[in-house]
Structures are given as structure tokens and as C-alpha cells.
Amino acid sequence: MKSRWQNDAADRMVAHYAEQGVCADVAMRVYTSRLLGQERTLVLHGGGNTSVKTRLPDLMGDEIEVLCVKGSGWDMAVIEPAGLPAVRLAPLLKLQGLDRLSDEDMVNAQRCNLLDCQAPNPSVEALLHAFVSHKFIDHTHANAVLAVSAQSNGMALCEQIFGPRMAVIDYVMPGFELAKVVAQVFAERPDIEGLILHKHGIFTFGSSAQQAYQRMIDMVTRAEDFIANKMQNLIRTPSALALSCGFSMAQIAPIVRGALALPVGQGGYTRMVAELRTDGVIADFCSRADLSNLAWQGVITPDHTIRIKNRPLVLPMPEANNLAGFRQVLQQRLDEYTRHYHAYFQSNNALLAGQRTELDAMPRVVLVQGLGLIAFGKSKKDAIIHADLAQATVETVLAANAVGQFEPLPESALFEMEYWSLEQAKLAQGKEAALARQVVLITGAAGAIGLATAKLFASQGAEVVLLDRDEATVVQAARSVGGKALGLACDVTNASDLRSAFDAACETFGGIDVVISNAGAAWEGAMATLDDSALRQCFELNFFAHQRVAQNAVRVMQAQGTGGVLLFNASKQAVNPGANFGAYGTAKAATLLLCRQYALEQGVHGIRSNAVNADRIRSGLLSDAMIASRSRSRGLDEKDYMSGNLLGQEVLAYDVAQAFLALALAQKTSGHVMTVDGGNIAAALR
Q: Domains plus CATH for the chain?
């Protein structure tokens, strides 16, 4: 492993934070914490922790000894000084004299001794950092160290590889008990440079940030070199499953996603969002004929079990032209998986004599033989984290098997971590947003109504896919939505474009739950003199495109089997035609009936179909030029034209977005048309 230390970069960081009143010790702690956190083979997504012992002024201005240790919820890759809360060191050291300390009392003691009561909770391993007298301490879950440690003879192997510079300690649950064990080891061997925690990770110590960091790099390099030498002797054999099964992940992912959804209430589902991995080491791993045997029977470090459970669900490669058979095998294996999880909970919960509430039994990682990996989470961000942890597991298991045979911690230890109240608290959040875990696809999404809708749905927790014709425009629109919004160039009048866009959405998020068919444009002209080509062109965009969008949506939603929502942007013109707008009005009238036809036909599948009937919305369709033209034709100024309704107010794109949101959430409404026009009796539905 290459050291990333640079003297000039370290000096710049110290100078930068000095301007903010941050002492050099904390600035250096931030610098090396980031170096560790940015190396994915050392630390992933908030894992690991670091600390420094220094002196800081208290409220009275007196300098006192403190431990600045990584705070819960902070990611070392991007940590700031605020992510290293300062805890009074002397009270922590007194805790070493206790024989026992509950997790809750430990957390309370740490919080009570914070210099800033609003700071995050110190790491659950803060006492370990306190009890070891070195100034700088680093802790990571280095893949290479885990690979050599996760063996039946892992402790002896680690002693051989790392030698007397490191102490090797058998697995102990993090917290007070582990801190006490480490304190005893350090008292007996004060000259050690660090610790190897069996099947857990590695600590290194130093009198300076650079020394602790360099010792981490040196020790991890020893493990990497040992593994590399073992791997040189391996002979790779071609996979027997390298042939294509004829199905893509875009077809498979929605089926798996739907199977993992949990029913709630009457016809509702708690879904998850997916992240797919289909290349590199994942492709090699999933193409192996012995995948079921090779897939891990326990995570590489106990922290991971909180997020991805202790094992993946393994599925066979789908047989060609037999998705029905794949569905059947999927359900059989999922039933087996959940039965095992229930038994795992019941047996281990009884052993610990606890009153724990069982978590959902659904896997967070699915390996599909011959295709790849699908990770699931409550959001796209969570799904990516789970996929990264799964990929690190794959890499580490392969390395461990090159050394010997991967042997994780026993299920009892993993259960204790998975149901550890302190770790569960990290993931616990308040009530989820109304559209959390749902994927929404919007056409015409770079326009006024489409973009307002995308932003509103994203604010309600949805993962959003934006489709529009111009790539640069729709990508910029997706950026303005924020989060993990996906912007795709797509001509909705092109069947191939639409199919590709829906497939891309499934490959990105695992499926689609709400589709808002919004794209449209108006053609002006009297019907008696309108050219056939203009009428056909208008119908192609304002009717046939809606039909193709709905067909693709239904295809995905039926594959998921968890219902869904179709929402169409109709128009006042559909029920109250205007002069010289016949082409647009007749196409929109057809679309209005299309919406109700889908409601009629798809209700049996739990798919709801509704429309929004809006009027006079400033947009690409009703441009400034068209507003000026139609205002003049009515003898009105533009303000009076745009607010010509019963409420006397201009209707905005956001108002239409709110109507789409209301219909998306109306679980018992289908075949409905919601009017958003400020009140227009002439256009009211009969």
C-alpha cells in the first residue's frame, strides 16, 4: 500500500485550520484521517476511527487534557474538526478502574464529559483510544488484514506476518470490555506499535500523526504482500458460466426488487432501492460455477452485518426464455433465506436473554449467477453503501481463500453486533418521507412542469429519473434536483429511445414505481385547413408517446408485482377545446381516455392510473410568445389572461406538481382527473 503522506499538504492543512482557531494537533488528525478514509481498502462509509490526545481550553479558559476522537456519523474521508469531538481525558481514564460498564452508561459518561454538549457522540471505541497512552491512534478495517485474520488459524498467522511489533487479540465486542482487554495488553507490552483485532481490524499508534499513519500503511502492506505471494501460486480456470443467459439486469432487477418488497396495509409495499454491479471482480465472482459455496457465510468485519446482514441471497442464472422459472426459484430461495434469518434471530436472541425486536428478514445483497450483484437499501445512497461493502467482502473473501479458507466470526458474535443498540442508533432516523424508497420517472422533465415535479417528488424522498430530448439540458436539470437524480436524453416519440431509458432507470435504481407522462407540445391551426402531417405529428407526441410510456411502465411494474402509479398530463383542451387548438385538443382527449383505459385494465395488478388537467401554465408549451399572442386575440393584457379564472390567480408549474404528488399518494384513487386551473367552469368535467 502506497503512503499518501505529503509534507506540503499537511502544512497547508495546519495553516488553513489555524485561521479558524483549530490547533495543529487536531488539524494533523484531520489530515491523516482523510488519508485513511479515502483509501477504500482501509475504510468504507463511516467505518474506522481515529483520535488525538491534546490540550484545549475549557469554559473557564483553563487548558485541560482531552481526547479528540471521531464522532459517530462522520466519514473519515471528508472529516472536519467538528467530527472529532473533544472529551475530557481524566474522567475517561478513571473508568478503567471499573469492572463493568454498560453500553448506555459508557455513552452517558462520554457525553457528560464533552467540551461541547452539542457535539456528536464520541466513537463507541473512544475508551480504547483513551486507555492507550499514545498521542495519535488510527483504526481501520483493512481488507488485507481481515483476509489473513479471517482464518481458522488467523491469530497465529497474524503473529507470523506482523511479528512482535503488533499485539494480536482475539475477538471481543467493541466497547468497554474491549477497551479493558487492550489496556491490559498495552500495560504488559508498552512498546507495541499497534493491535490486530482478530476478524475485526487493525489499530496503529504513534507520537505523531505521520508515525501512526505510516505504521498503518506498513502493516497493511505486510498483509498485502503475504496475500500477493499466495495468489501467485493460484491457477485460474475459465468459468463454466461465462455464456449469456439471454436476460439483462434491467429485466432481472425489477423482479428481484419486487420479491423483496414487504406488504404493508391494504395493497401497499415497503420497497427498497437498488445498486447494480456487473463488471470487474463482481463479474468474475458471480460467473463462478461454485458461487453458492463461495458466497460468504458471514461478513468480513462485524460492523458490516448491521448494514448487509451476515450473508447474501444467491440465485442461479436464469434459464433462457424462462423468466417464470426464475421467479419460482427466486421465491423458493428467498423463503429459505427468511426462514434461516428467523431461526438465527430466535436462537441467538434466546442465548442473550434479550427482548430485542426482530428486524426485517430480507437480504440486502443478492448475487445472481452469471449476471452480477444487486444491493438494496432504503435510498440510492444506502444501496451504494451496501454494494461497496459487498464488493469489499467479495475482494476480501477471494484474498482469504488464496491464503487458506475464509472463516468469519460465529453467528452469535455477528448477531450481537447486528442487534447492538449503540450501532442500531447510528442508522435509526425519524419518520421516512412520503415517497422514500420509491423510484419516479418523469418525461418532459427539463420543462417548467416536469422540473417542478421532479424537485417536489425528490423533496418527498423519491429517487428521480428525468427524461427530455436534449442531453445537456436534462443532465443539468437532474443536477438541479440534487441527490442521485438521473438525467437521460430521450425522444419519447422514439420507441427504441424509450425502451433504453426505462432499462437505464432499472439498471440504476432496480425498478420504477411512479411514471409521470408529461412531455407534450402544442400545434396551432384550424382543423379544416390543418395539414395531415401536422396532425399526425401532434398525435405522435401528445397521444402515442403517452401510450408507449405507459406500456414501458406497465412492463416494469408488472415485473415487480408491487403495483405502481401512472400519471398523465392531460389538458383543459381535452374537455374544453379552444379555437385553432384542435390538433392538440383531440390528441389530449384521446390521452385522457387512455389514462382511464389503463385504470380499467391495470387495476387488477394494483397499478393506478390518473391524470392532471391543467390550464395556462407558463412553460415551453405555453411560451411567452404564445401568451402574448393569445392575450392579444382575447383583447386582454397578459396578467389578466394568465389569471383569467375564478380565483383570479395565475396557476404555476408548482401547483401542477402538487397535483401529481397528491395523486401519487392517493392509494385508493384510480381513473381520476384532477383539475388545476384556478377555476374554469367551462372546462369542468361533467
A: 7-231 (3.40.225.10), 249-266+274-353+361-427 (3.40.225.10), 439-683 (3.40.50.720)
